Amino acid sequence: MDATILPVIETALLQVSADKGLATARDRLEVMSPQCGFGELGTCCRICYMGPCRIDPFGNGPKTGVCGLTPDAMVARNLLRDTVGGTASHVGHARHVLLTLRDTLKGKAPYQIKGVSKVMSLAKTFDVPTEGREVNDICRDLVNIALEDFGRQDDEQPNNWLSKRAPVAEQALWSKLGLMYSNPHNEIETAMHASSMGNDADPLSLMMRVLKMSLIDGWTGLALCVDLQDILFGVPEIAVTEAAVGVLEENSVNIAAHGHNPVLSEKILEWAEKLEGEALAAGSDGINVVGVCCTGNELSMRHGVKLAAHNSQTELILATGAVDAMVVDIQCIWPQLAQVAKCFDTAFITTDAMVRIPDARHIPFEPHHADESAREIVQTAIEAFRRRRGKPVDIPQLKSTAVAGLSVEAIIDLLSRLDAEDPLKPVLDQVANGNIFGFVGVVGCSSIKFRDNAMTEEMVKHLLRQNVLVLTTGCTAHICAQDGLMTSEATYRYCGEGLRSVLEILGEAAGLGGPLPPVWHMGACVDNSRIVDLMVVLAERLGVKVGQLPAVGSAPELVQEKAVSIGGSFLAMGVSCHIAPAPKVLGGPMVTKLLTEDLQDLLGAVVRVELQPKAAADWMVAHIGEKRAALGI
Amino acid sequence: MKIVIIGNGPAAIAAAETIRGQDRSCEIVMLSRESVPFYSPCPLAEYVEGSVPKDHLFLRDPAFYSRSGIDIRYGRPVIRIEPQTRQVWLAGNEAVAYDQLLIASGSKAFVPPIPGLATAKGVFELKTLDDAEGILERIKTARRAVVIGSGFIGLEAVQALIRQGLDVTLLEAQAQVLPAMLDREMAAIVQQRLTAHGVQVHTGCGAERILENENGVRAVMAGGCEIPCELVICAAGVRADLSILEGSGIASNRGILVNDHMQTNVDGVFAAGDIIERPDVPEKYRVLPIWPNAVSTGRIAAWNMLGIATRHPGLEAVNVVRVFDTPIASFGTQTAEDCLRWQDGNGAVRKVLLQEGRVIGGQLIGEINGTGVLHEMMKKGIAAERFGEALAHPGFSYAHFMQPSRAVKWA
Amino acid sequence: MEKTVSKTIFTVVENCVACKSCEIACAVEHSCSKTLAGAILETPLPQRRITVEGVGAYSYPSRCQHCSDASCITACPTGAMQRDGNTDAVFSDHDRCIGCWMCVVVCPFGGVTADPVNKKALKCDRCPERTAKGEAPACVSACPTGALLFLTPEEFAAQRRQATAHAAVCGESTTKLNGMDILRSLKGAN
Fold it and tell me: Which residues of this UniProt protein bind [Ni-4Fe-4S] cluster (chain A) (predicted)?
């Protein structure tokens, strides 16, 4: 058993809340515990009104639902709906960015095309002619290709982003398994339809739907979204930032941007700069925009904005009393935030019609009037600062330096300084000689259930010792950044000898004056497509399938439905996944076996549940070892 | 056999009922100082407050005694005991012979030597039904009251008087309220709650003199100030009533010294209830005048008087009081090397005190569920380290002890 | 009336999945309407007398043990806490209870709790109205996994013997691992 270590930052933050007498998610979880076993096993079905039905895992009570649904079908159906929730979130985000880009091109939304290089590379991918054309025209073609994906009713036509962006070898397998899709919206509808009462009751069929839905998440929800965000806001470049609550500044107007969609946060950042004068006039040292959750990751990737908190710390940083405004868009916004904000001068501002929270201030934000809304939001923060000014705040002085911005483009740019002709070769050589034993994509959320044993940090450290390079996104990226794992020191402190030597060479090439950090910040949770893209280019250079690479995915603190569908998209690529906690399928023995064993034959990937950091790392290293052996390295 | 029981409280009744349950033939004589059937003094404050009707105080109906073959003699205080002749002497020079004697005459309120306190009209204790009736009569005209002492009787009195609409001042000679139950920090929480309900609380402030006029008490001098009032309640603690022991040779200290059979040092003489002291146990378990101990020691005494040797497992060192509906529980000692703490952000605080990995005390305000589990751990000396912080959580239950025996599939 | 001491509530810990159906059923049984829909609209809200506690990877429905030498009865200074002459169940008479909480602080099982709203001691009364009709207590009826049983000690002992015999003959290992076993072993590693 691994020791219980509550991370220093969590300890300090919880103390701040305790001092103010504020209950936190830990307290609410305690009241909630023990949690219902039927729910944990996935054998509670609330889909129809003959129910709720529950299956007795011990075989003494009900063995099927009232309708006769088997436990395996029940857990698969529930898992499908989880996956739909995740995929719908990302696809919704993607479509919002797409429409913003469309309207920008029409001159209706005040944004610019900052990622010209991305326009050009995508034009190549989608066979859009570029010769002698304006960037906006090329871009318009790309928008139309994307819009077509959302409007097509002919399911025989494959989805553009899937068929053009995904590797060909994998597409052949997906085609064979019936996983190719056309219009994501139609598929979301079909999945909800198939999983409603009296439809698909075949666990295997339902599980294939889960994989298909995950594939939609991977190529429309993630890839399309990230591609278009890069067009609008620029392709991330390596940047140095800071992470943890200590980035709040007592005498600045602290604006915490929280959520997921840079369409909002980019404008907040822009207006924070424009209104700096007003902030100074209000007696502050200026405006300090800090990033929370994945909005934080987006801003740090593109602008080096400081990272204040991951998802499970959102209510805790409000308890400092130092946040003047927390402005949120979509996903992972805890309703509790409004209640904590009420105890202070903090303006808690919702902006999206889909995210309405009682006791929050709602300032509608939509791309057409982005400037007006962003100005109002920043001014609201300055007003809140005026009220707060002079009152005591309680900011734990803890923060770490972190290197961010490692997009695939930034990585290849870095590598090309070593070998301009064949930038990937140095990495592949190091993989082959074992200095890089393999790759783990550590993704997903931060969970109250796993903060007590520093699940992510400890697991990552175990991996680094065994020369595994860690690529991370989302809230696990925050955790790693806060723990100092995105620094040169971490390379010296935690890496095995082989990995350290590689990172030293890369750091030198990058002109960092030290080794590259061993944990690479690749963005928000939506940016998991960057990890996939990196694996795809490596696999293509090697002439193998992605699933053959010595790579594993891990969601060590899974919370959101999005993490379920992301995990599924990794599986579909043939990449095995470690997750914690256990997925809600254990009540279905066949589904459990499918995910943990039989999927190997189907896709070459399995799911592994380990709730302890060392056990999780050990399994991943062993699994990578098997992949290496299969490659003969 | 003739058994004489001095007293008519919970220890006396528990003993009498236990004896009668075993032995239909023996003679039982109960000598009661008061003139009413067995009643519970615990809800007297609620009776004064008006929330408990008088008939609910009486826990046995008047016919109980005759039905149970108990010769109850009301209004007969005992003057002295003569073990040599196996007799007790009552007022009026009347002797009652016994084969076995149980002294269960309880405790009396401690009245500090403050001028006027023992004599002034309008000064009451809150220990007996007569006290309660006196207070109820007095508050028909009284507007202001001073309560001396902030133990649990004092605090219950304060609450009752506030709810009767009086202005109440609470005087506590020590630096904090509930000094026998709580540490300074916890006491401060209680004091805040009292203040919030309009009580004037003066700690570190003892009463110095009772000032009177023709209607009785008119003010209390305390800390050099005059606190005008028409009613004083003296709740400065209770003491075992040992006056009847004089010349009997029955050993006593703070209470009558008994062993775990409730036997005194004198043959044929037992004691139970508030009056006893257990010299053979750690300090915190020696004198514990609370209801559960009265009942349990009364029962144990009864078994042993009947010749059925039975040991008492140990007194309950726990108490609980409510201050304006906030429950406050305390057990064991108030200081220790380690203290686990839990609080809910809404005013509830729980502290569990540990010494050498074992629970030795606890103080709980607002959220007292599970106090009995912790108290049991203290009594049994259960190793507590493995439970960690969970000990202080309200969810901690006896179920946690079952973990090691998990291999046993049935429980 | 004939004394009906026969059946009591037994707990099979391994079968508890912490669904808390017993908690809801208990509160509903102790409501005025005795229906879930009615109970949640009542003021004050009915309170449960059974609480599912988490114990490591396991959970346990904790409630009054109806002790033969019940410290809560000894401790009650108002005569509210009593033993039912027919069923031997320990119950509290709400009319007499003054909410002094002495029972709460002496119960070594945490089986008596303080009802903060009504200021009355709360504890399992073993559902006298149901058992009088020959029904099992509400918690037992609601338990979907057989973690709570309403049996005579003889019946329970017989079940126990059968289970032991079955395990001895067939061996425990032949029992197929169910989802709950997997979940517990995962959590047990924590």
Answer: 260, 294, 332, 445, 475, 525
